[in-house]
Amino acid sequence: MSAVITRHFLPVGNGRQVHYRRAGSGPPLVIMHPSPNSSASMTAAINAFSDVFTCIALDTPGYGLSDDIVDDPTELWGYADALARVLDALSIPKAFVYGAATGAQIGIQFARRYPGRVHTLMLDANGDFGGEAGQHIAEGYFQDIAPVRDGTHLLRIWDMCRHLSVFFPWQSTLKADRINADVASPEFIQHYVNDYLRAGPNYKKAYYEAMVVETWENTRQVTVPVVMTRNAGSPLLPHTDALIGKGLPANFKVLPCTPADRYAVQAAEMRPRAGQSGLSAPPAPPADHLSADGAQNFYIAARGGQLRVRGNVHGPGRPLLALHDPAGSSRLVEPIVAPYVGTRPVLALDLPGNGESDNVIDTGRITSAAYAEIVTEALRNAGLSEVDVIGRYSGGPIAMEMSFQAPTLVKHVVLAGVGIYEGEEQKNLLAHYTPSIAPTWDGAHLVRAWAIMRDQGLFWPWFNRTKAGILWADNAIDVAMIHLRVTEMLKIGDQYQKAYAAMWTYPMRERLPRLKTPALFAVPPWEPIYAHNAACAALAPHARAADLPPAMPDWHKVLTPFFTA
Fold first, then answer.
1. Distance between CA atoms of 482 and 476, rounded to whole angstroms?
2. How far, in Å, CA of 439 to CA of 442, rounded?
3. Separation CA 151–CA 244 (nearest Å)
4. Cα dihedral 155/161/165/170 (nearest 10)
5. Which residues have a Cβ under 8 Å from the Cβ of 270 and sit 6 or more positions away?
6. Residues whose CB falls within 8 Å of the CB of residue 54, separated by 6 or more in sequence, listed in order
7. Which one of 226, 243, 277 terminates a domain?
8. What is the tens place of the pLDDT at every residue in 213-225?
9. Which domain holds residue 551?
């Protein structure tokens, strides 16, 4: 049975946040994941323990959606201190602690430095990496994944993630290191790739230090009660057995298990310990304690799920909402609203299925109106009664539909790059703009995704790679921006085809005359969509067209007079 898992952002000072998943009831159990994953990789553990514990599965600082709050990672002591800060922020003086792989090593260092805060330490996927064995594992393990112009860093990440199910260590080619198991599915590998992309080039920060401290000499210094798993099907089994073979203190208990019964065996061992602990977990802190400085992350409930928001709820006046393009996220429109932080509440929303939002939309009905219904519901759930909305590309039709569905909610709309797509142009866009990026066994979909986003800055439409399609702009190949767009595109996957189709097929010519909300049709003159701008504005009552500066952070110079007119 699956637990009801909610996601939260926890302020930990200086405008930084740690992300975690929470489920269940009972004594607090902190769950820490392997590197470079996130708490999403611990869903099975959360489900196994949530009927016994209040599970708090953290994204390790610098991984998943957690900010990096660790200055000195040496021997993971900084991560142990960060865990203490998180427990303080959650008002949890003492907890059960569960760690897998890197999470196990963080748990060991935390138990060594803060033994009074640990009831029982559970270790999974840990062993002894000391001596020559550790050197063999670490040599070549950590590859450079900084974005490069041709996108080949994506294939490097794919190679690393794929071979985690072929060899241990992954970079080996030795028969002795071969894993006797099926190769992971392309979909599973892609989830792993996404976690590398979230962590970025600094992914090895905790990962490497975990390997450094994963030794018998370090492990045996834990003095709190320890339950350690010996998983007969784990690639780490030789290292686990090496640790056990050197002898463990009396406070260690080893649990034999298999991959199939691992969590059941662990839960059975922990159930009586939980009942006798006398510990309890306070409720999750409310989401209204966010900092007044800079952009923050938070969630808004909608359709039984959660939508991620980048923004700031502080400041006077009407909230300003920004909606992104079909394969984007709030990170792509955050620069538009950033200048307003502190002067008015601002929200940049990940649409359902995009970015870090739950996919709560009916995938059989992906339309601008369907998106609008969910966003409107989310705003109502957040207690908002009025908003101004900026819609970028497909965000424009969604903003329009919101104004139709909830005319008292939407007071102004900015349509930043909308067009009327009809006839042959529409057919060509539907046929060619969104080739499949579904994961393939060889990782070729990553090359395709990079090429699509690269050429979007070079041609319009991107597949028209002729003189007639050239976009004449400086810095057309912006590696950092291409990487960001590809990262977000890979999160939504082939659903991006339906999201784009919703934009291409939106009946703009029919809907514009119904737009009664004051509207600004605005776009920088260098964008190919600029040719549509004035024509769209002419069809809508209470609308006008405007030129935007080339850089998003400067758009407020044009937008502010419109909002205040």
1. 10
2. 8
3. 43
4. 90
5. 29, 49, 52, 53, 96, 120, 122, 227
6. 22, 23, 24, 25, 26, 27, 28, 29, 281
7. 277
8. 999 999 999 999 9
9. 296-421+506-564
For 384-438, what is the HEC assignment? Answer: CCCEEEEEECCHHHHHHHHHHHCCCCEEEEEEECCCCCCHHHHHHHHHHCCCCCC
Residues of the chain with pLDDT below 70 are: 1, 287-292
Considering the domain architecture, whether residues 98 and 223 belong to the same structural domain is answered as: yes
Distance CA 134, CA 439 (A): 33
Helices (H), 457-555: 479-492, 495-504, 508-511, 530-539
Note the pLDDT of residue 1. 67
On whether residue 365 sits in a domain, the answer given is: yes
pTM of the shown model: 0.96
Question: Quick check: is 554 in a domain?
Answer: yes
Residue whose tokens read 């139709």: 404
Assess contact for 344 and 320: CB atoms under 8 A.
yes
CA–CA distance, 545 with 521 (Å, rounded to integer): 5
**Residue in this structure with the two tokens 């000391």, named with its chain if needed:** 130
Write down the residue that tokens 């509440």 correspond to: 345
C-alpha count within 13 angstroms, C-beta hemisphere, residue 122: 27
